[in-house]
Design brief:
The protein is mainly α. Helices cover 41% and strands 5% of the residues. The chain contains 22 helices and nine strands.
C-alpha cells in the first residue's frame, strides 16, 4: 500500500511540478486557468460563483436549478423574459460528481466498492467521499479523495483488476513509461502532454528508490488524485468563432460520456476524439445514438435524472422516509420498501428504453414486482421470487409512476393517507409555486364525525385563509388519489368506513383551465397533457444534462424542445440525443470576472 510517507511525498511532488495546486483548494469555476495554477479558488477570468462541484443543498446532484418541494422550477421563460439565443457561461473545470466518480472507477479500474472498517463489509465508493458540494475543494474533501485513492490503488495492485492499470512487469524497462502514457490517456480523457509524462516519471526518482511494486502503486495513486482526473477541465482555446470557443474533440468526448454515461469515454469514442471527429453536430449525434444503446451505462443516468426531476435525491423531500403502522399495514415491510424503491428505477428505465414519451411516465401500466411488494398490488406473492418481474396492472387503477406504491407510501402519513403531501408533490410537477406553510400549521387539529380521510382533510385545511389559500390549490390532486391507502394498496372503502370519493377539480397551473377528474387515471391523463408539466420536464433535462443553472440563453433551446414534446410523440430518447446538438454543447464562452 502507498505508505503515509510516500502518499504525502507524492502529493508534494505533484504540487511542486504543477500537477496539484494548493493541496486540493482548486477553484471549481475558474476560467482559462491552466492546471496547477488554479490557486485557492479564485475565479480567474471566468464563471465566478456558478460552482458546479455538486451540492445537495436543494435537490442533490449538481445544484442544477431543479424544482424544490415547494413549487418546482421557476421556469426558463416568463413574462418579459424573451428567448435570447447564445451560449451560457458554465464552469470550465467542474469536479466529478460522486456518482460519476463511482462510475469512472467501475469502468476504468473495475472497482465498485471498498471494505469499510466501521461496518465490516464492503461499501459503495460514494460512502467514502464527502457529499457533492459547490465551490472550491476543501481540506475535508481533499483528504477523502486521497484516502479513497490510496485504498483503490492498493486494491487494484493486489487484486484481479491489476491489468486494468498495468499489464507488464513494472521492473521491466519501459513498462512504467508505457503504463503512464496508456493509462493516463484513459484517466485524463485526453493524451498526456510531454511535461505531464515527465512529471509522472519523476515519481520513481527518489532516494531511497522505491521497489517496482511501490512505484506502480504510487503512480496509480498519483493519477487518482490529479486535478486532471478529478476535474473535467476544458482548456482548449485554439479555435474561436464570434467570441465562442470550440471545445476540442477530447473535451466533447468527455462531455458526451459524462452526460450519457456519467463515466469516461470508451475506446470507440476516444478514437473518434483522437481523429478530431467530434466537431460537427452530425459527428456528435452519431456517437450519442450509439452510446444510448449501451443500456448498462445509460440506465444509471436515466435513473439519476428521474430522481432529480422527482426530487428523489433531495434530502428534504419525503421519499423513503415514511414509516407505517405495522399492525394496520402488515404488507409494508422493510423488504417491501426496498422493492418499491427499485421498482421506480425499473419503471423509468422501462418507459425510456421502451421508446416512451413524457405522457408514458404518467400513463404506462407497467410495474415491477417481487414477492415483497406483490400483495400491495393485489397479486399473489407465491408467484414471484426475489427478483423484480415486469407485469402489467389494471390501467384504470395504475397509470404512471404516481400510482406506484413507492410514491404513494412515501407521500403519506404513518397511519393514513395525506392528500396534502401527494397534492403538493403533484403541484411541483406542474410547476405551481407553493410557499412555506405558516408557523404552527403542522400543529393544526380538527374534530368532527368524519367517515372519510378526505372529509377530515377538508375540514383541517379549509378552516382559515392561511391554510385554505394553498391547500385549495393542491389538495384536489391528492383527493383524486384517495383510492390508494397509506402504503399504496387499492381501496374502495376508506379506513374510517365511508366510500372513497375521488372526484376533484384539479388546478393545472400557469393559467390553464381547471380540469374535473373522478379517478386516478383521469388525473394522470390531465397531468400528461399539461404543457407546464411537459415544460418542467424539458427544463429539468437541460439543467441536469448541462450541469448549469437556468439561463436566459437556454430559453430558445427550451422553447424548441418544449414545442416538440407538446406534439405528444417526442420520445425521451430523442430528447436526450438532441441535447447534444446545440452550439452550447460543443462550445463555451468566457464569463465576466
Amino acid at each position: 500500500m502507498v505508505s503515509k510517507l510516500n502518499k504525502h511525498y507524492c502529493a508534494a511532488l505533484l504540487a511542486c511540478s504543477g500537477l496539484i495546486s494548493g493541496c486540493g483548494l482548486w477553484s471549481n469555476d475558474s476560467e482559462g486557468t491552466p492546471e496547477g495554477h488554479a490557486g485557492n479558488g479564485s475565479a480567474g477570468n471566468g464563471s465566478a460563483g456558478l460552482g458546479f462541484g455538486g451540492g445537495n443543498a436543494a435537490n442533490g446532484g449538481a445544484s442544477q436549478g431543479g424544482a424544490s418541494n415547494e413549487g418546482g422550477n421557476a421556469g426558463f421563460v416568463g413574462p418579459g423574459d424573451p428567448c435570447r439565443p447564445g451560449v451560457p457561461v458554465t464552469s470550465q473545470i467542474p469536479r466529478l460528481l460522486n456518482r460519476q466518480y463511482a462510475a469512472v472507477m467501475r469502468d476504468l479500474l473495475g472497482v465498485t466498492a471498498l471494505p469499510s472498517t466501521g461496518t465490516g463489509g464492503d461499501q459503495p465508493l460514494s460512502n467514502f467521499l464527502v457529499a457533492d458540494f459547490d465551490g472550491p475543494l476543501n481540506t475535508q474533501a481533499w483528504d477523502a479523495y486521497q484516502d479513497v485513492a490510496e485504498k483503490i490503488a492498493h486494491a487494484v495492485m493486489t487484486g484481479p483488476n491489476r491489468s486494468k492499470f498495468i499489464s507488464c512487469d513494472p521492473a521491466q524497462a519501459g513498462c512504467m513509461d508505457n503504463t503512464i502514457e496508456t493509462f493516463g490517456r484513459k484517466a485524463f480523457r485526453r493524451p498526456l502532454s510531454d511535461d505531464e509524462l515527465v512529471r509522472f516519471q519523476q515519481l520513481g526518482k527518489t532516494t531511497p528508490a522505491p521497489s517496482a511494486a511501490e512505484l506502480a502503486e504510487t503512480t496509480l495513486f498519483a493519477f487518482l488524485v490529479s486535478p486532471s482526473f478529478l476535474m473535467l477541465s476544458e482548456l482548449a482555446t485554439d479555435k474561436q468563432v464570434d467570441g465562442k470557443i470550440q471545445l476540442s474533440s477530447n473535451e466533447v468526448a468527455t462531455r458526451l460520456s459524462m452526460m450519457l454515461w456519467d463515466s469516461i469515454p470508451d475506446d470507440q469514442l476516444n478514437t473518434a476524439a483522437d481523429k478530431n471527429e467530434l466537431q460537427t453536430g452530425e459527428q456528435i449525434l452519431a456517437q450519442a445514438k450509439r452510446m444510448l444503446l449501451v443500456k448498462e451505462k445509460v440506465a444509471p443516468v436515466i435513473e439519476a435524472f428521474h430522481q432529480y426531476w422527482t426530487h428523489g435525491d433531495d434530502p428534504g423531500a419525503h421519499w423513503w422516509k415514511g414509516h407505517h403502522d405495522a399492525t394496520r399495514f402488515p404488507l409494508y415491510t422493510a423488504n417491501a420498501a426496498t422493492a418499491m424503491q427499485a421498482e421506480l428505477d425499473a419503471f423509468f428505465d422501462d418507459v425510456i428504453f421502451g421508446h416512451g414519451t413524457f405522457a408514458d411516465l404518467f400513463l404506462s401500466n407497467a410495474a415491477f414486482v417481487n414477492r415483497d411488494n406483490a400483495a400491495i398490488y393485489g397479486l399473489d406473492p407465491a408467484g414471484y421470487g426475489t427478483d423484480l418481474k415486469r407485469v402489467e396492472l389494471d390501467a384504470k387503477q395504475r397509470s404512471g409512476f404516481l400510482t406506484r406504491a413507492g410514491f404513494l407510501s412515501s407521500y403519506a402519513n404513518e397511519t393514513r393517507t395525506s392528500p396534502a403531501l401527494r397534492g403538493a408533490f403533484i403541484a411541483s410537477i406542474l410547476g405551481i409555486q407553493i410557499g412555506a406553510p405558516p408557523p404552527g400549521a403542522a400543529q393544526q387539529t380538527v374534530t368532527g364525525d368524519f367517515v372519510t380521510n378526505r372529509q377530515y382533510f377538508e375540514a383541517l385545511t379549509q378552516s382559515g385563509p392561511p391554510c385554505r389559500n394553498c391547500h385549495e390549490v393542491f389538495n384536489p390532486a391528492g383527493f383524486a388519489l384517495e383510492n390508494f391507502d397509506a402504503i399504496g394498496a387499492w381501496q374502495t372503502v376508506d379506513q374510517l368506513g365511508g366510500a372513497i370519493d375521488a372526484k376533484a377539480t384539479v388546478k393545472l397551473g400557469n393559467g390553464l383551465q381547471d380540469v374535473e377528474v373522478s379517478s386516478p387515471r383521469e388525473l394522470m391523463q390531465a397531468i400528461a397533457k399539461a404543457q407546464k408539466a411537459q415544460d418542467q420536464y424539458v427544463e429539468a433535462w437541460i439543467s441536469f444534462a448541462y450541469r448549469r443553472p437556468d439561463s436566459s440563453l437556454d430559453h430558445c433551446l427550451a422553447n424548441d424542445f418544449e414545442f416538440r414534446i407538446h406534439n405528444g410523440d417526442y420520445e425521451v430518447l430523442n430528447l436526450i440525443t438532441d441535447l447534444t446538438q446545440p452550439d452550447s454543447f460543443r462550445m463555451r464562452v468566457r464569463g465576466t470576472p
